[in-house]
Structures
1.
Amino acid sequence: MGHLHLELFATLDLVGQAPGGPEEDPEGFAFGGWQAPLISDVEGEQVAAAYAETDALLLGRRTYDIFAAYWPQQTGWIADLFNRIPKYVASRSRLDLDWDGAHQLGPGLPAAVREVRERHANTRVVGSLDLVQTLLNERLADRLDLWLHPLVLGEGKKIFDGGAVPANLRLLAPAATGPTGTVHLRYSITDEVPATGTMA
């Protein structure tokens, strides 16, 4: 079985909503595009390395719409990758998908995601916070790439708002810091329940 990777950008208070621009989430969120002023070449290289062995994308409906409107018109390695590999879209509504290689998942999301994991070695979930929360609740995610940015917004949708089940995470590599203060953390997500104890 392959691995399902979560690729997430968040603030220090774990807001992951609309990092790339105001148009990503037009629901009155005042800070859409909060990530843009903090992007550096270092973070770009980290993202490139994270995506190097991607076989498929798993996207929520809103992220799919944003990507499908943007990436087919772009050039470069990430555009070539996204346009070439299969894209799986999770949505309860019937969709008309016109991006080459896009497929809608069936109504039984956990089973459909397991089939995707069987089919591909490395599937990546980008953004799609509602989908991410479902995947965490169903224990379907294997890895987490998390870029923490030196911001506190105090509002916006948070990564773990959906009541993720308790789980231990294991650091896969030392944390890497970029020149703007963004920290890249790479974890595996285990099935282990966090232990408790006393400091005495």
Note: Residues 55-138+151-165 form a domain with the Dihydrofolate Reductase, subunit A fold (CATH 3.40.430.10).
2.
Amino acid sequence: MKRGNWKIRIFIGLAIVAFAFIKKCSNTEENPYTGREQHITMTSDQEIAIGLQSAPGMAQQHGGLYPDEKLQTFVKKVGNRLVNNSIAKDTPYHYDFHLLADDQTINAFALPGGQCFITYALFSQLNEAQLAGVMGHEIGHVIGRHSAERIADSQTWQTATMGATVGAGDMGSIMGSIGQNTLLKNGRNDELESDELGVLFMIKAGYDPYEMIKVMEILKAAGGPNRVPEFQSTHPDPANRIEKIKAAIEKYQE
């Protein structure tokens, strides 16, 4: 490659990388419900639309909805109790709560905009207060706009990686690796923020927040002795989450 062309590639690559991070800074806003500064590139209406469009496919991946209307109604009742007694009711999101048929995978998750799910495998091990803890945690993900933040971060790293690839060949893969590690770290923080919000929602709705600790113990037992180390996981270790939950209980309990 001619030296002049090499310089041009470096310049273009650096310009693309700079553009990615300037754009990120310009799209930073304060979350009105958590007070945290976030990089967001979509509106709440777009989050709701993404969640509604994705919900059927996500349910299908877990065997569809659990075929018991009484249990579905129970899950919705607990979820709505949390929403109606917390700041969630003041948000623009459309909350709905679903019990999935999957009886093998212990899991719960939320889509952007308010669609919350729990598998029967996890649900079957919980009492009502523990279910409230899980659903409160998922509502926390929605209010925290964690999916929207991850999407925006992913877009930034895609642009930066493209710039690094143009400017320095193999540096693109390095930038991609840095981006993945950053998203991984933020994902853990999302979980901890949602745990704290879940504790707050439980207290506001009249549930015993210490039941959230028992949920962590259930998750820890489900992980077994071969659990992936925390630094390799998108979720903090349950033992570390318990300490944070205890601190949140002391913070919010009157």
Note: The chain has nine helices and five strands.
3.
Amino acid sequence: MKEITISPVTRVEGHAGIKIFLNEQGEVDSAHFQVVELRGFEKFLVGAAIEEAPRITPRICGICPSAHHLAAAKATDQIFGVEPPATGKKLRELLNIGQFIHSHALHFFMLAAPDFILGYDAPAEERNVIGLARHSPEIAKKAIAVRKFGQRLTEAVGGKPIHPANALSGGMSAPLTEGKRAELVTMADEALTIAREGWDLARGLLDGVDTGVGAVETGFLGMTRHGLHTTYEGPVAVLGPDGGRIGSFSGEEYTNFIEEYSEDWSYLKFARLKGGDYYRVGPLARLNIVEKMGTEHADAALAEYRERFGTVTQATLAYHLARYIEFLTSCERAVELLSDPGITGSDVRIPVEKVVNRRGIGIIEAPRGTLIHDYTVSESGIIERCNLIVATCQNNYAIDRGVEDMARRVVENGTLTEGAANRIEMIIRAYDPCISCATHAIGRMPLRIELVRR
């Protein structure tokens, strides 16, 4: 048995592994994306009061805390039978937009861009954010500036820059002050200028790149409201592999469409559509589903994107451009919300009194895709059951199959070069997986690739 290890795979959030099995001729027989970490939050939450869920779940991840915070808060709204007031909803949407700006800027500029700007065959010691800063210092500076705005927005609206705490059952715990609004709208204008200028870079990122690599034929799932792109509220549309609309859901009826399952090579759960078709979530899926982004410059970018990829595309590497268009619309939407005088209104929460419904499902779009929090509680509001379906679990099948497709292309005579290994990593990075959201590790478990001859 021949084994080649790459440790760790770089520029992904969390730890995982890849195993590539070779036949006697040194050709790829099969390959799998493998996660061997322990996931525990669904058990940690059992026995806690439901109102604690929005405070506990942001600790799942330091990259995606706002999405978990808001999904849990939406679930508690249902359990207590309340609908947050308009200003409270606007603040929640603004909080989620802050996470989109921070997360998408981080991934596009710092994790993905080095492969395309510096070259995927560049030495590993150069093909990273430090190398990017040396090669293109202005790009690095702008990336840091927009990430800073995303974090400031999270801190101002959510109460903390990393693990927000202001969303709770019935709305938000505190309004946005006029002073904070004025500060943030100036930063939002600056971030939008950077995002608009950056589209010139983004639109050409995949020029000369074979966008057929790692492609997987799947259906798609994502939130939309009246055909517009949305991240906080709206039904989740479901497309089949042919791009046809299968249906939509907004609550517990998600179980009519989605089923979870496991495979013996990974601790990470998988999800598929009932009936056997697989699906993907995240920026690519959302852009396949929506008719418009709903903001001027992002709509213009979407038109260019669709000229190249069509209305519905299976191209995995198109995730990068889709992610940038979402980053652009998030900056535009931040300017809109922060320019709305009503955003500083004081009516941000409806008090709750008792449990009205023993089950609550909170659904939101996280940067990496649709996030579902499903809680069942006792009559006194103690969590009895918890199920979290995160984007990386839903993309798990497609990541796995994309890895095998790329492995078949780059492994030659039983040999995996550094450049070839990075090409496999690029397929994983296209999904921007958040393995911490999907699993939780005990100890240090670096991502590694093993090449096995059998």
Note: The two ends are 6 Å apart (CA to CA).
4.
Amino acid sequence: MSFESSTSSKAILWSAAALAGASAVGILYWSRRTHVYEQYVPIQYQYRPGTISGWLANALSKYSKKRRKIRPVRVYVDGCFDMMHYGHANALRQAKAVGDQLVLGLVPESEILKNKGPPVMNDEERYIMVEAVKWVDEVITGVPYDLSPQFCQELFTKHRIDYIIHGDDPCLLPDGTDAYAYAKKLGRFRMIKRTEGVSTTDIVGRMLTCTRVNPFVASDEPHPLAKSFSMAADKAEEDDEEVPNAASPMKRISHSHNTTLSRFLPTSRRLEQFSNGRVAPEGARIVYIDGAFDVFHPGHVKVLQAAKAEGDFLLVGLHTDDDVQRRRGPHLPIMNLHERSLSVLACKYVDEVVIGAPTVITRDIVSTFNISLVVRGSVSEMSGVRAPDESRYEVPKSMGIFRPLSSAAPDMSTRNIIHRIVNKRTEFEARNAKKTVSEAKYQASKTYVQEL
């Protein structure tokens, strides 16, 4: 055979082999897409952990985890976090999902006054709230409201921040410029989805409306707490002059008898996101505390911290809206049951929540949840208004598993917060009116953002 014919034969063979190989790859790809692959290819040759592809994927994953342990991705979220609520908590949860460590910048009261208006809570109270959120790793205090280039560089160098995060709602400075413009220019800004249905402005509005007794609830005598709020509102009206507000010609919110309804839409996914997903280990000392936990505040945080110190697993029972209303009057609770559940679940001291727990603790509840100790805080919304109902804790007392906890924040309660707002009603109504305008603009122009 000549050299030319031999070369030609080899070329034909190689071409046929290449065609056969390409056909085999095509058939293999098609069979995998149509699930024929799993039926006819032996398991030892299928793609799975342990094969070369699986080994490479595992190696890359291990390298990534090792690198992030040495140099974790640090993200930064700033804000006032006044009247901390589940919307704030959900923003922090999403921010934490962007990186490994979440650093929170707490804007001081002096900056809030210059840029937004009066805060409800002082610096120390707001610090207690943000430090107790289970997704927060570090808190920086005294940060400026304006993320200037100089402050951004301080975040990137001194605090080793990789990304600055904010919701999809605009954050404008008094001069109308974007507070996050510099971070966006550097490509170190990440957007998260804003949680709809709640805001500090909304909660303040609900509190302002509760200064009047609900006219749709038939009652010969107003509830003691409602009378207290109404007297405070009346005094505030006497002290303040009626000055027309050019920015908001609407009637004062506190004059309305209508309550502000929550726009919160509860989902099972949201509860799952906030839940620890933990089960009390065998032999754990389970501590139980119940209540309304309405408008989650520093007093709640302190009593939950003290309760968790009494055992290994903290279970919190949340009473229904109807039970809270019967006990405290038609104007409360400010937050509904699902909103209160998320606020409590966001606290790092809480392991699990019983949604809609009965007000009276029975032996069945103790045995069902294997409760070792029942505790109760010394501060109540009804303190000084009405004697507490001791029958709620008769069973745990008779079993010798009840213990009262002295409050670390005796002056802090939902009633106290409402009085703060009522006493400065004009200032808060002006702030709410201004916020309502910007909220309307956001709602008119917002687009869909995928939640993390």
Note: The chain has a mean pLDDT of 77.
